[in-house]
Design a protein that fits this description.
Residues 1-21 are annotated as: Disordered. Residues 1-11 have a biased composition (Polar residues). The protein is an alpha/beta fold and 397 residues long. It is built from 15 helices and twelve strands. It has three domains: 43-217, 3-Layer(aba) Sandwich (Rossmann fold), CATH 3.40.50; 222-295, Helicase, Ruva Protein, domain 3, CATH 1.10.8; 304-388, Arc Repressor Mutant, subunit A (Orthogonal Bundle). It has helices at residues 28-40, 59-72, 86-101, 104-111, 135-145, 163-181, 194-203, 222-235, 242-252, 256-269, 278-302, 306-315, 325-332, 336-349, 367-379, and strands spanning 48-53, 76-81, 116-118, 124-127, 152-159, 186-192, 213-217, 239-240, 275-276, 322-324, 352-354, 359-362. Strand 11 (352-354) and strand 12 (359-362) form a beta hairpin. The protein is globular and about 70 Å long. The two termini are 21 Å apart. The structure holds adenosine-5'-diphosphate (ADP) and magnesium ion. Magnesium ion binds next to helix 2.
Length: 397
């Protein structure tokens, strides 16, 4: 007899891009260290961060965590995407908004700087047009207004390596660098796919980005994954049966987006019962994998260059989940040294991982299945599932 709850509450899981989770799994040490910077202004090597990872690995959610932590320490937060018009949006919209959030005493102090016009109540009215808008001056003034109590966190999401975007980002970073050299307390965090962040570092004229701290987002470990499932359900008033939890962890493979999808489907299967059962987890299994392929894996695959696609396609021949480098070279019709270059890039960006000497394996779960399913669609063959030997699908009725 399954016990029922009086009412069913909405799912607390948050599948979707840029939807920060209720329970943020993993990355505890980094968060603790960065939160300490917000409190102490002792930056150490944390004045610039590069957060890299594939889509759905939790980069935007991490930025949201940092923003919350910074705000609770009284910091000013400027957050934007690395798209065209970044500089104007920050100087014309984000900064005025932040100024109006400051305490009146701080705004009074800002008025004397003369960059901005204020109303009689010390609300921001406009920028003084005779002063050329320079982000560096704005940042220095804002930092001084906080008079050593707090700093400014700038987060730039969706860094991508289009030429225009990089040029604009470089200009932006240069302004930040100038402000820092004039003593402004600024932490800047960039988030994007690894190869794009590498381009940013290469293109940059300022040296501080090169010294950035790298945070690489891959998968959570099994313990962290289990914690996210259990704790999310618990906060919303339900428990998860032991066996159901094990299955959900195996399905999700530590991939943040997939954790939320699997949890969400499991929750919705019987929202009125007190605990999530293995039946719920089984229903979630099938649905979540289909959904993650459509929403995440297909897009992550499309992020690859043609040559990198050739590499992962060659890997997908091996339904066991691991591939021999020399087989990949043969299948790609190329030489070992080229294959090593692709391999390195794919290792760096988090698609594959070494798996014993001379072997690689997919580190993005279900990418191999996705590639095989596309190939099967084209050839009309059945979807091959044989590399699931360690994760047997639950029986269907
Ligand atoms: N640390 C985490 N623990 C649990 N779920 C997470 C975590 N980070 C992100 N998520 C979930 O994963 C999904 C993708 O997160 P997002 O931050 O948009 O990733 P990215 O920006 O890397 O594409 C969202 O559904 C989010 O709720
Ligand atoms: Mg994102």
């Amino acid at each position: 007899m399954v016990s029922q709850r009086e009412t069913s509450s909405p799912s607390p899981f948050t599948p979707g891009y840029s939807k920060p989770p209720l329970v943020f799994g993993g990355h505890e040490d980094e968060l603790e260290e960065l939160t300490a910077v917000f409190r102490t202004l002792d930056f150490g090597e944390n004045d610039s961060l590069l957060i890299s990872g594939l889509r759905g690995s939790g980069k935007t959610s991490m930025l949201a965590r940092l923003q919350d932590a910074a705000r609770s320490s009284g910091w000013i937060v400027l957050s934007d995407d690395a798209s065209k018009g970044l500089m104007d949006r920050v100087t014309e919209t984000s900064i005025p908004t932040e100024i109006n959030r400051l305490a009146e005493a701080d705004r009074v102090r800002l008025k004397s700087v003369g960059i901005w016009k204020f109303s009689a109540e010390f609300d921001f009215v406009d920028r003084n047009r005779e002063i050329r808008p320079l982000l560096r001056n704005d940042l220095v003034a804002l930092s001084e207004a906080l008079s050593g109590r707090a700093g400014i966190l700038i987060t730039i999401d969706e860094v991508s390596s289009g030429k225009v975007r990089l040029r604009e980002l470089s200009r932006f970073a240069l302004e930040v660098a100038h402000a820092k050299s004039e003593g402004a307390n600024i932490m800047i965090a960039f988030a994007g796919i690894k190869v794009d962040l590498d381009e940013l570092v290469k293109n940059e004229h300022t040296t501080f980005i090169r010294r950035s701290r790298d945070l690489t987002f891959r998968r959570l470990n099994p313990k962290e994954t289990a914690h996210v499932f259990e704790e999310t359900a618990r906060i919303a008033g339900r428990s998860i049966d032991r066996e159901a939890l094990d299955l959900l962890v195996r399905v999700a493979q530590g991939y943040p987006y997939l954790i939320q999808l699997a949890g969400d489907y499991a929750w919705r299967n019987t929202p009125e019962s007190e605990s999530i059962s293995v039946d719920d987890a089984q229903v979630a299994h099938d649905k979540a994998i289909k959904s993650v392929q459509r929403r995440v894996i297909s897009r992550v695959y499309e992020d690859l260059s043609e040559r990198d696609k050739d590499f992962v396609n060659a890997m997908a021949h091996d339904v066991t989940g691991r591939s021999k480098m020399s087989d990949i070279a043969t299948r790609m019709g190329t030489y070992g040294q080229y294959v090593q270059i692709y391999k390195k890039r794919l290792l760096d960006s988090g698609y594959v991982q070494p798996d014993g000497r001379g072997y690689v394996a997919f580190s993005l779960p279900y990418l191999g299945d996705y590639i095989r399913s596309m190939a099967a669609d084209e050839s009309g063959n059945e979807f091959q599932t044989s590399d699931w030997s360690e994760f047997p699908p639950p029986p269907h009725d």
